[in-house]
C-alpha cells in the first residue's frame, strides 16, 4: 500500500482530488487530501496586499463595481510549517498537486518549499501540466498529461513495489537533465473509474495559520458531480475545445451509466447529508435517451433539488418540464455575447440571438430559476458589438440572472488566445476603450432593472451618463444572487 498526499491550492470546483482519492482507495492505497489556503473576492480598488492568479478573474458585479475574484495572501512561514507538519505526520510515498493554468506560479512556489523537507517524488496533474507541460516540468518529477485516475494508481503501484516509474503512459518524467515524454494514455470508460471519495476524515484545510480537520469543501451541503466528461461543442475560449484538438474528438464526450450516478448520489445522500446537487457537466441537457432514463430514477431515489448547465440549442420546453419534475430548480445557460459576429467568428459558437432569447424564455416559462453567462472585454469586440449586446439584453428575459459580468480570460494555447496573438501581430484589433466598457457595463446592468425599455434607451442616449456611467446605479433595483439554488423573486418591467 502506498500513501499519497494530494494538495489542492484554494477551494473552487473540487472534483479532481475526490475522484483521485476514490481511485487510489479502490486500488488499496491510502490518501490524504490537503486544501491549502483560500481565495477571496474584493473590489479591485481594495485589493492592495493581495496576490492574484497568473490569469486573474475580474468582473463587473450587480452593484456597478469591478471585483477581482482570485485574490489570496502570500504563503506565510506558519502556513508552510503547518503544511510540512501534516505531511510529515502522514509520511507520503509521493505528493500530488492538482494544478490549473492560473496557478502554476504559486504551485511552483509551494512545491519548492516542500522540496526542502521531502525527497519523495512529486507529480503534477490537471489542466496546467496538460496544456503547458514545458512550463511545469521544472517543478515536478512527473507530469500527468490529460486524465489522471489510471496514472496515479500506476504510480502508486510502482512505488509500492519499488519499481521504476519513468515510462508510465500519459506522463512526462524529469530525470536529471533528461525529460522523458511518454505516449498519451487512452481514455478510460467512465464506469471503470471509481466513485469519488469525500470521506471527511481524508480532508483537511490549512488557511490563515489554522488547520481544519474532517473538512468538506463544498458549501451549504451541496454535492458536486459530473455525469459526463467532455462537451459536444468546441468554443474557442474553452478548455474542452483544446482537449479535442490535443486528444481527438472521438470518444471525448462520455457519460456514466445511470446506475453509476445513482449509486454515487445515494452514497452522498446517506453519508454527507447533502441538501442539493450541483451537476457540473459542461452541458447537462444532452443525450435525451440518457436523461429519459435518469430523471425518473433521480426523482424516485434521490429527490433533491438540483442545478445544471444548458446550452441554447440543447433544451426545449418538453425537456425543461421533465427536468423541473425531477427536481431541477435552477439552470445556467451560456450566452457569452449578444453579438452574433463575435459568437460566430471568434467564439466558434454560431448561435442565433433569437434562439438564445427563446431558450431563456423557455426556462422562465417552465418555472425554473434561470442564470446566464456573459463574457465581456473580448479582444475582438468593437463598440458596435457592445451596442448589439446591450440591445440583445433589452430583449433577454428580465427574470434571467447573473452573478457578474466577467472579463474574458485568455488562457495560453486556447484557439481564442492564439487568434488574439495573430491579430495583434497584424495590428488589426480595434478594442473599445476603458471608458467605453465602463459605459456599456453599466448599461448591461441597467438592462436588468425594471425600468421601461424606452427609459433605458433614453439613459443610453443622454450624454451625462456616458460622461459619468456610475450615475446609472440609482436605477439598479436588483440584488445579486449568491447561490444558484437560492430563491429568486420574480420581477417584471414597469408598465407605461
Describe the structure.
The chain is of the alpha/beta class and 496 residues long. It has two domains: 3-37 and 75-207, Rossmann fold; 219-475, Aldolase class I (TIM Barrel), CATH 3.20.20. The chain has 17 helices and 21 strands. It has helices spanning 15-26, 77-90, 104-115, 127-131, 133-136, 149-161, 239-247, 258-271, 288-302, 317-326, 340-345, 353-365, 383-395, 415-426, 434-446, 453-461, 463-467; strands at 3-9, 30-36, 40-43, 51-52, 58-61, 66-72, 94-98, 122-125, 142-144, 171-175, 178-181, 203-207, 210-213, 222-225, 228-229, 254-255, 276-279, 306-310, 328-336, 369-374, 404-406. It has a nine-stranded mixed β-sheet with strand order 11-10-9-8-7-1-2-12-13, with helices on both faces. A hairpin with a 2-residue loop joins strand 10 and strand 11 (178-181). Helix 1 packs across helix 6, helix 8 packs parallel to helix 9 (288-302) and helix 13 (383-395) packs parallel to helix 15. The longest helix is centred in the middle third of the chain and has 15 residues, at 288-302. It is globular and about 75 Å long.
Amino acid at each position: 500500500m502506498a500513501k499519497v498526499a494530494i494538495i489542492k491550492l484554494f477551494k473552487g470546483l473540487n472534483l479532481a482530488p475526490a475522484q483521485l482519492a476514490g481511485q487510489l482507495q479502490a486500488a488499496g492505497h491510502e490518501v490524504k487530501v490537503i486544501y491549502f489556503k483560500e481565495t477571496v473576492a474584493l473590489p479591485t480598488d481594495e485589493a492592495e496586499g493581495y496576490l492574484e492568479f497568473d490569469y486573474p478573474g475580474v468582473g463587473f458585479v450587480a452593484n456597478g463595481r469591478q471585483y477581482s475574484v482570485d485574490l489570496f495572501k502570500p504563503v506565510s512561514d506558519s502556513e508552510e510549517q503547518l503544511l510540512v507538519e501534516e505531511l510529515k505526520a502522514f509520511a507520503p510515498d509521493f505528493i500530488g498537486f492538482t494544478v490549473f493554468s492560473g496557478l502554476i506560479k504559486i504551485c511552483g512556489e509551494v512545491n519548492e518549499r516542500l522540496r526542502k523537507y521531502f525527497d519523495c517524488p512529486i507529480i503534477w496533474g490537471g489542466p496546467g501540466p496538460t496544456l503547458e507541460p514545458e512550463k511545469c516540468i521544472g517543478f515536478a518529477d512527473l507530469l500527468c498529461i490529460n486524465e489522471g485516475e489510471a496514472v496515479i494508481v500506476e504510480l502508486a503501484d510502482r512505488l509500492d513495489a519499488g519499481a521504476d516509474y519513468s515510462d508510465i503512459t500519459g506522463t512526462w518524467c524529469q530525470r536529471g537533465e533528461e525529460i522523458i515524454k511518454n505516449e498519451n494514455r487512452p481514455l478510460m470508460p467512465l464506469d471503470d473509474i471509481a466513485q469519488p471519495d469525500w470521506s471527511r476524515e481524508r480532508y483537511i484545510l490549512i488557511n490563515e495559520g489554522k488547520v481544519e480537520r474532517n473538512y468538506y469543501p463544498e458549501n451549504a451541503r451541496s454535492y458536486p458531480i459530473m455525469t459526463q466528461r467532455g462537451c459536444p461543442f468546441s468554443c474557442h475560449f474553452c478548455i474542452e475545445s483544446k482537449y479535442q484538438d490535443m486528444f481527438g474528438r472521438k470518444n471525448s464526450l462520455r457519460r456514466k451509466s445511470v446506475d453509476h450516478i445513482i449509486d454515487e448520489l445515494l452514497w452522498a445522500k446517506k453519508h454527507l447529508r447533502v441538501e442539493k446537487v450541483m451537476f457540473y457537466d459542461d452541458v447537462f441537457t444532452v443525450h435525451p435517451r440518457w436523461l429519459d432514463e435518469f430523471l425518473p430514477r433521480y426523482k424516485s431515489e434521490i429527490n433533491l433539488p438540483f442545478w445544471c448547465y444548458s446550452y441554447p440549442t440543447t433544451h426545449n420546453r418538453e425537456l425543461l418540464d421533465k427536468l423541473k419534475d425531477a427536481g431541477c430548480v435552477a439552470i445556467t445557460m451560456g450566452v457569452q455575447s449578444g453579438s452574433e459576429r463575435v459568437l460566430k467568428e471568434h467564439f466558434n459558437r454560431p448561435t442565433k440571438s433569437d434562439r438564445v432569447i427563446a431558450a431563456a424564455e423557455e426556462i422562465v416559462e417552465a418555472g425554473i430559476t434561470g442564470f446566464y453567462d456573459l463574457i465581456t472585454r473580448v479582444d475582438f469586440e468593437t463598440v458596435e458589438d457592445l451596442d448589439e449586446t446591450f440591445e440583445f439584453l433589452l430583449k433577454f428575459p428580465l427574470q434571467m440572472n447573473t452573478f457578474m459580468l466577467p472579463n474574458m480570460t485568455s488562457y495560453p494555447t486556447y484557439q481564442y488566445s492564439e487568434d488574439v496573438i495573430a491579430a495583434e501581430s497584424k495590428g488589426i484589433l480595434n478594442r473599445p476603450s476603458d471608458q467605453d466598457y465602463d459605459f456599456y457595463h453599466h448599461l448591461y446592468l441597467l438592462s436588468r432593472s425594471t425600468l421601461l425599455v424606452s427609459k433605458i434607451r433614453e439613459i443610453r442616449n443622454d450624454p451625462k451618463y456616458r460622461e459619468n456611467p456610475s450615475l446609472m446605479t440609482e436605477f439598479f433595483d436588483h440584488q445579486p444572487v449568491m447561490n444558484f439554488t437560492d430563491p429568486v423573486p420574480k420581477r417584471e418591467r414597469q408598465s407605461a
